[in-house]
Amino acid sequence: MTTDESYLERVGNSRRKRFTKHLLLCLVSIVMLYPLLWLVSSSLKPSGIVFKDLSLWPAEWDFSNYTEGWTALQFPFDLYLVNSVVIVVLSIIGNLLSCSLAAYAFARLNFRGRKLFFALTLGTMMLPGHVLLVPQYIVFAKLGWLNTYFPLIVPNFLATSAFYIFLMVQFIRSLPKELDEAARIDGAGTFRIFWSVILPLCKPAFATTAIFTFISTWNEFFSPLLYLTEQELYTVPLAVRQFIDSEGQSQWGQMFAMSFVSLAPVIGFFIAGQKYLVKGIATTGLK
Amino acid sequence: MTLTSVKDPAVSEAPVSPPKAAKPPQDRSGYLFILPWFIGMAFTIIPFFASLYLAFTDYNLLNVPNWIGLENFAEMFSDDTWWQSVKVTFIYTFVSVPLSLAAALGVAMLLNRGVRGLPVYRAIFYLPSLLGGSVALVLLWRYIFGLNGIVNAFLGFFGIDKISWTSDPDHALTTLIILHIWTFGSPMVIFLAGLKQIPSMYYEAAAIDGANKWQQFRKITLPLLSPIIFFNLIQSLISSFQTFTQGFIFSGGKGGPANSTMFYNLYLYKQGFEQFHMGYASAMAWMLLIIIAAFTGLNFLLAKRWVHYDN
């Protein structure tokens, strides 16, 4: 009897505990999501009532903020979207190519200075970027690269992202070495092994790199601010930023609408690539 | 020679295979593979030393840099705005980093051990950390904390008067600290992965010995998780010291109200690229490097006391 009672009590307890846990997690979820939901809902309300009507569900759906916001700036918003996409796509290609080449060399090839070079790479992860800022700016200016996309793209082709090299090195090290050796015995050269054996297996690490590059390049504000001063070259964050100056009430709705347009691709990529993102940052933390 | 053959039993068992297979050959083609990296590294190292040189000059983009010794650094120490930017960055970092790590750890522990719906919760908590640094989100934050925004409306339910979060120098930074805490998702994911690696039998054994939850947390979770806490701490500190976009967007690029959101890197940007005091900006960048290195070094020293490595 007594054991039964204590058993029931324990079950009741753990059920109550589980309930409180979920309640707590739901509360945190609401706090985390509320700002984003509010953004979406405000973008669908007529500007005049955004701050009067606090409900999340718009009484009537009004898409005029999107259509008007799209053309509110000097150029239509699709120009800024295309600019951002061009930079993002080239940055992804650059990072995948240059970082995988370097990572393969660091993980597999045996050459003098390898360890030192790899340590140097890891060291740059800790380096605050602004230390390099002024001289790099001067060089880009001397090359005539101000108001071009080169300062934003070219560094990605030069394996300057230590984080991705590190990620790929970890990944390649986890692949069995027998693969390389078998291919070598079959007569494949080093580059052939890299290209035909290692690269196809690196898809998960590539996916992580591509998604991280996408999100960070898409959100990047500082470098475009520094290097792009002509409106028609602006990226999405520079475009959205211009809504700050429009403090007039009538433009709030448009600002929210275009803000959501700028965040939507990140949210989309996040949902599609969540698995790789979570894995990617988990491994960097653990190793 | 003997060492390598002992290491690789396949070779010692099969002496027929060519000796080359025992050790990967020196592969010069490695240099070809890292050629892009090499150029990139040159483009890091040369600017690194160039900016050190510029830190001792009065360079302003137009004239030839003149060597002025330690003058930039002396000027920094008598520059009130510089001190203000240090203060803002320190308060921001030392308040928001511990709080966001505590939130990350707390929520990770709630999620640990198979809560139903874990992937959904994890996604919801992680998403904000991908958006928190974006222009759109900082803009949104200004309106959420605006005079008629939802935060004041919410506080109004409790009879609290409207607070001018964005225009009162006493509150503006608080708003950005809350934004930082809101992005606790990425350290949380790292904590979750670390918690998963702690064998549950430790907790079972402790429970049998009569240890309560708090003792289990103190004696098992904290020590075993300490390397990951340390990693997250270093990462968050370094990136938090370099905050830029939040201050810039929040204040419309001015660092206001009353310089209360004048982050270090925002002031550096203004000095370097609005006033073209490139020498001063370089000196500021080096000073930040020294500050970051000092705190990172201090953390590594303190780590000996609380970070436990397996072996």
Automatic annotation (TrEMBL), chain A:
Key word Transmembrane helix present: yes
Q: Transmembrane ranges?
A: 23-41, 80-104, 116-140, 152-172, 193-215, 252-272
| Cell location | Cell membrane
Membrane topology note? Multi-pass membrane protein
A GO CC annotation given for this chain: plasma membrane
- Give the family from UniProt: Belongs to the binding-protein-dependent transport system permease family.
**Can you name this protein?**
Carbohydrate ABC transporter permease
Q: Which residues form the ABC transmembrane type-1 domain?
A: 81-273
Gene Ontology BP annotations: transmembrane transport
Q: InterPro entries of this UniProt entry?
A: MetI-like, MetI-like_sf
The protein's UniProt keywords, in alphabetical order, are: Cell membrane, Membrane, Transmembrane, Transmembrane helix, Transport
Please verify whether the record's keywords include Transmembrane. yes
